[in-house]
Amino acid sequence: MMAPEALVITTAIRARPEEIRQARVLSASLGYPYVPRGRLNLDDLCRQWDAAGAVVVTRERLILRLAGKEFFFHPGLAQLRIRALRAGKTDQMVKAMGLRAGDRVLDCTLGLAADALVAAYVVGDSGRVVGLEAVPVVGTLVRYGLKRYRPGDAAVAAALRRVEVVVADHREYLPTLDGESFDVVYFDPMFRIPLRRSSSLEPLRPLAEHAPLEPGSVAEALRVARRRVVLKERRGSPEFDRLGFRRVVGGRYSPVAYGVIEKGGDQLA
To answer: Which domains are delineated in the chain?
Structure first.
């Protein structure tokens, strides 16, 4: 994982006092140095400070500039999936989770929050979706975006506001929870292994935690889940067998699949 000093926090060139203040707040909370932007472009700024990248506070969003690429929160494909659900189509993740209105969902690997957003749409106002993100800067960027992004779709807007972001490693967070405190616990470690190099997640990869999912974490998830634990992986991945997910479901032509362990059903070997 990238060291904290490898990033700096700055603003757009024509920053208002509010953006400068926000950048200083983020610097204090994340532990990255705040650097006044001046008139420098971002590449020159990073070279001057020997930084691998920068977090940029602008009027509209937070931007991570890393390896010549930019990342900022956008609901992306989650919007299309929500529209498809509203049209009566099947979402394989929702099916694997067995989601319904009022459910409590713990997403242990939040990433860009796409899956959490879809879950938040399905569980509705009476449900709850908590997303864990182990990398503080990623969690901060996503939390910022969830609060400030303004989609034209009211259903997507409502789902954005329902996702609770917790900056924490699931290996440390799960043991602190009461048993059966969530209906579904979800893992998506695919962020660590991209399906294609052009993935929109690629700018974040140097910051990621690359450790594989541990059987002990799945056991903790089973304790915390009331109904089931779900794992998203590549179709045919050996991770399903290694971690005890005997039931695997998903679309016939999809490159991904979902392992399901029902509470009281198939348990870890």
So the answer is: 4-71 (3.40.50.800), 77-262 (3.40.50.150)
